[in-house]
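Self-study notes.
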Amino acid sequence: MSSRIAMTWWLTGLSGAGKSTLAQALAHALRDRAESVCVVDGDELRSGLSRDLGFDDASRAENVRRAAHMARILNSNGIHAVVAMISPAAKERDAALALIGRDRCKEIYINTPLEICIQRDPKGLYARAGAGQLTQMTGIQSAYEPPPSPALRLDTSVTEVSQAVLQILAI
């Protein structure tokens, strides 16, 4: 691993914005540089460590806290963390960045327009929300609070993944 301090890149945005794709590409780029990295993906957390949580505000806050704690542990062991999760509430993201340590955490807002996210709909969530089969869908029935001053804003509908990775590594 390089001598640089282990960092966390916190990718936040709507479902379908491109967080997981960017997280995997960033991890690949870091591994190409012989750096240790772990992707902490919100969907993977929900299928295991956070499978006991729902989608109410308290559960979403706890899911973000768990991801932040995991990132802090990884960083303290010299491993970069790339967190890819919607994390819709600004207050919880702020608490997560504080828990990790602001000196080693960069918040990246994947601000791909909702219309594009709906068109992509990789998990069929927007279709289910539109059909009334899913409630509390972030961006539809549940609010998403954009970061007021992220380290970087990316729109994956106009920025290629490889270019986005370079921009992330430059911050």
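Second protein, same conventions, sequence then structure:
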Amino acid sequence: MTSVDQLRGAQLATFGRRKVAPRVCIADSKKHLRTFLADALEDLGFITGECAKAEEFAAALDQHQPDLVVLGSSLNGIQAGRMIEILAQRGFAGHVLAICPRESITATAIQQMGREHGLLMLPPLSTPFSAGTLHHGVAALLPAEPAPSPAVDVAEALKAGWLELWYQYKLDARTLTPCGAEALVRMRHPTWGVVPPKQFIPADNDQHFRTLSEFVINRTIADWHYLLERQGAIDLSINLPISFLANRDAVHDLCSWMPSHPAFRGLIVEVDAAEVIANLDLLVDVAKRLRLRNIAIAIDRLGVDWPALMELTTFPFVELKVDRELINGCADDRLKQTVCRRIVELAEGYGARSVATGIESRADLVTVHEIGFDVVQGYLFGKPTGLKKFARTAAAQPLRLHD
């Protein structure tokens, strides 16, 4: 079976019935190459595992149970050949992708050896290659259907340790240098792979919501220490519901968990604008008290409801984050630009920062810069990533635009 169309038909039938994320074992002798491949394949929806040499390969197969094996470019022909023999001995039914220098003798030999042993060999990937080329090479192996919602109960995820935080940069709108990062909760399910929050976040009145909020707070603080050691202090933001901030015991715990480290400049708690506006007196009071404990509240997803904030006599909020629906496409929409200008003016009047979220194009970036936003955030500067990848990205400044 050699054509991509044949592979697509056979593989989607399998994964379509299973409705699970495919697994991949990355075999490469160089750690940085394994890391690059793992990051790229995880972004595509694979659950990844790694192996450095042939002596570890059998154990890696037992541990990861892969649907795809990637033989990396730093493996020599002997190592790759031994791994192919191990796959054949085990009757491996998945696919194999070899990465080799273009038109090399080794690449031809690996492909031929794999076919002779009855393995399903994907067309080889020649070096150098990009994440897009890799995507094209393995696209036929991705699931035909998305994971159902919800994929798993959040209580089970908390107990099993499947939750983690991903981070996305916030940048100064004038210099495009990082000025903080937002923590976003994700689930790494052993079957479904990375699951977005909309598929597992409980309802606001769910008994597990406070436990989830406490997880986010404590993991953020732990991650702050991790990042401090690797790149220096960074200002972090988290999202919390009004139900948590309305609970005095929960707020007391939040304050007690703040780091005493001299480099800690404070934590920003983002609260949905609709909840803030519906509970203005409560949020103003909580924000005043939290400021004394090095915690600030930002109003998130602010949209056409912004006039509700105009008559406040005191404004203890540190940021106004404009809803991505107003930012996306604002370069070509005068109405969106008008609303954004009013919110920026409101923020300036109160001495708060204005944040444009959801920026995905250079045109929108130019527009929000002209409007006068203080901070920008969005996929144009990179998608949210796991802690370790975020730390590596931070060490490789400056950031690059991704459109």
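Instructor comment on the second fold: The chain is about 40% helix and 20% strand.
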